[in-house]
Amino acid sequence: MFQVLLVDDEPLVRHHLTTLLDWNKEGFELCGEAHNGAMALALIGRSAPHVAIIDVNMPEMNGVELNRTIKEKHPSVRTIMLSSYDDYDYVRECLKDGAVDYLLKHRLDEASLLAILNKAVEKRPSDDRQRGKNAVGEMSGERESSALVRDLLADLARGKPDAAANLEAAADRHGLFRGAISYVAAAVQIVSFRLLTESYSDVQTNRLAQQAVEIMQQSLGNMQDRVAAYAEDGRMIVLFAFKERSEHVVAGEVGRLIAKLQHALELLLNLRCMAAPGYVCGSLAQFGASYGAAVRALDASPSSERPSLFNDRVSLTIEEQKELLLSIERLDKEGMHQLLASVFSSVRGQPVHAQTVQMIVSELLHTGDKAIKKWMPTLSSEAAESELPSRADLGKIAGLAELELWLQSYYAGLLKLLRRQRANGPYSRHVSQAIELILERYQGYITLELAAGAIGLNPSYLSRIFKEETRATFSEYLNRVRIDVSCRLLESGRYSIKQISTQAGFANYNYFFKVFKEIKGMTPQAYLNGDRTVK
Questions:
Q1: What is the pLDDT of residues 144-163, one digit of tens each?
Q2: Would you tell me the crossing angle of helices 318-329 and 400-423 to the nearest 10 degrees?
Q3: Element (H or E) spanning 166, and its range?
Q4: What is the tens place of the pLDDT at every residue in 342-366?
């Protein structure tokens, strides 16, 4: 008999569990009940159960802490978590720390409990209910054969020669997939894996990949019929084996299981993934071809439209990087928006997980990091988190449109932080708000009256305190900002003087010329020619 310990602070839940199953008939025996973590650890020390069923949300030591302690002090004990809908964050931590699976309290029934108990002891329901060395040896043998299958599947996914033949030979040798007459491969891709892990160490990256595979396997169930393995770069391979001959039935079940594992990855690891099945084949010798079909389906363009740059673009151009930095420096939200839209337009036909897309997004993020280091070197992590979307959210993005919106939000937040920093100084709150409005709207129509209305002040009062604190009128400060932007545009060498006057917010070229000379002591052309000694 396999020994099971129940841990829950609610007596009704413990009673429900004890009466839900004919424990002895199914090969299990309840060795104790605990109503808190300390009591559970004491019982584990005395009775050494095979399995502990643990409530996630308990007072004092919660299920997360208890599960972690059990894994550290009693690693042979398998843990199953009991949770409610609002406990998923806790469940996620427990699964990361090695819990076998979880049960929702409101969905507890005999079948689900028995299935997870069987999974916990790594055996089929028809296995003998043995204890001792025979059971341990059997479990160890299953683990070894499962590890071998995963290694061979990974070899196949990486294109290693003879991988399919080796897989078939190993299955025959170890008696795997007995009775199976239909096989299907599936390719699964964590969409933004490269972006999520580029700042990770190898250990962290491998840990995430392992967690993803374990969550997938928990979702898929018995490794005798379905095996998930990790290939590389966020790509996983799944083997489905069926005793069913009907391709229609097999395809339907594969679709259901793929949807289930996608949901599990998103729910428990916050990872969005794309998946595609291959065709149904009659032997493992054909499994490699099935996986090849799955990969082609997964990596195919999501639309029939393929831009002319589809095969040529591999990264941001130097000009695009310079243009983006210039837009950031001059706080040009519209210019930044147009550039990002242009970049995404050029890769519109590619799947979001394509290497080119991931590389370009990585470069866009590096450009943002470069801008922060250059113009906001003292920016605190708290300030950044208040305006910039979390990079962890990239794991939940499944499409190019979502990815573009995320980056637009990221750069809009970056500009807001930069405006706020430039507006900060020895100024009152209202004057800082007025300066921030100037920096945000200098390219368009902005006046003292509009700024006062936006802030909620009388224009005369704002005019007075603005002049007292900045030593300049509102119009003078606005013109200085516009001329500073003009100088950066002149230095870039990308635009004509007339284009610059418009981009800097001047509606009249002659007025721009006059203001530029008043502030800089020279004409725009002289500044462009490098004659900056004129006063």
A1: 567 788 889 999 999 988 88
A2: 40
A3: helix 163-174
A4: 999 888 878 888 888 988 999 999 9
Contact 122, 100 (CB under 8 A): no
Integer-rounded Cα radius of gyration of the chain: 31
- What distance in Å separates the CA atoms of residue 80 and residue 86, rounded to the nearest whole number? 17
Q: 2-120 falls under which CATH superfamily?
A: Response regulator (3.40.50.2300)
User: Which two three-digit tokens encode residue 34?
Assistant: 């605990």
Give me the amino acid identity at 420: R
Q: CA 500, CA 489: separation in Å to the nearest integer? A: 7
DSSP codes, 8-55:
-S-HHHHHHHHHHS-TTTTTEEEEEEESSHHHHHHHHHHH--SEEEEE
User: Residue 521 to residues 72, 108, 513, 516: CA-CA distances in angstroms?
Assistant: 73, 80, 11, 8
First to last CA, the chain: 95
Cα 463 from Cα 473, distance rounded (Å): 7
Q: Span 133-299: which CATH code?
A: 3.30.70.270
Alpha-carbon 286 to chain mean position: 34
May I ask the CATH architecture of the domain 429-528? Orthogonal Bundle (1.10)
pTM beyond 0.70: the answer is no
